[in-house]
């Protein structure tokens, strides 16, 4: 079992920055690929970024590439999402997710069904 708790959300003006954190319980965090997804009002949840268990691979949605950076600290059982140059369209509830799958085929990181555990989410609101 892994429990995930997000923090760091809030209200920020367009062009500003926020850093989200995802704290994980359990001793298996270092074995999990970790991802961020987001869900805007009235929209489906969408992939934002993923980092593999070793930290060796990071992948991003085109909409955030160059503005967001995902990272992890396995010693602290914590994952981060540094968000810069925020836009109003980044407004959403951001969820972290953990996957223990080792099947890496196609767009493996985008499917919600791959992820075994999810956090409750943290609200990010970007004002124009």
Description:
The protein is mainly beta and 128 residues long. Helix content is 0%, strand content 46%. A hairpin with a 4-residue loop joins strand 7 and strand 8. The model has no long low-confidence stretch (mean pLDDT 95).
Overall pLDDT metric: 95
- The radius of gyration is 14 Å
Measure the end-to-end span.
40 Å
Order of helices and strands: EEEEEEEEEEE
Indicate the percent of residues in helices.
under 10%
Low-confidence stretches: none
Outline the fold blueprint.
Blueprint: E1 4-7, E2 10-13, E3 18-24, E4 33-39, E5 46-51, E6 58-60, E7 68-73, E8 78-83, E9 92-99, E10 117-118, E11 122-127
Parallel strand pairs: 2-11
Antiparallel strand pairs: 1-3, 3-8, 4-5, 4-9, 5-6, 7-8, 9-10, 9-11
Notable features of this structure?
7-stranded mixed sheet; 11 strands; 4-stranded antiparallel sheet; about 130 residues; mainly beta
Brief account:
This protein is mostly beta strands and 128 residues long.
């Amino acid at each position: 079992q892994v429990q995930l708790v997000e923090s760091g959300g809030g209200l920020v003006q367009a062009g500003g920055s926020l850093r989200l954190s995802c704290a994980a319980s359990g001793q298996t965090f270092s074995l999990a690929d970790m991802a961020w997804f987001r869900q805007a009002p009235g929209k489906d949840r969408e992939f934002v970024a993923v980092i593999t268990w070793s930290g060796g691979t990071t992948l991003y949605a085109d909409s955030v590439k160059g503005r967001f950076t995902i990272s992890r600290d396995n010693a602290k059982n914590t994952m981060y999402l540094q968000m810069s140059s925020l836009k109003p369209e980044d407004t959403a509830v951001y969820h972290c997710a953990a996957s223990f799958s080792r099947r890496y085929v196609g767009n493996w990181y985008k499917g919600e069904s791959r992820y075994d555990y999810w956090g409750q989410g943290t609200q990010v609101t970007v004002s124009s």
